[in-house]
Design brief:
Blueprint lengths: L1 H19 L5 H12 L3 H7 L4 H7 L7 H11 L4 H13 L17
Amino acid sequence: MWVKNKQLINSFTLFMFLNTSKNIDIGLIIRQKMSEQGTPIAWLARQVDYDRSNLWKLLHHKHIYPELLLKISMALKTDFFAYYSQYLAQIIENKHDNSISAPFGKNDNK
């Protein structure tokens, strides 16, 4: 049970980090990629084992749970996590940006 709780905490921590990146609208990025590829929502919903209408609603949010984002990345053969990696690299390069805080309010930018 401890391992399951640890995995849940790790997923929650990742979700909190992804939510701190306010400039990334991952739902919009996914919809754009679907449009480029001509991918219907019904097909993607089947691939990620998600209800079509609920998936469509989620894709109109700026943030998506990491597990679902991974499934969508695999289905569309696109690394959507790379957008967050690029954002994180910018944060690391700009250590003096006080407007950026880590998950749970801890700010390690010094």
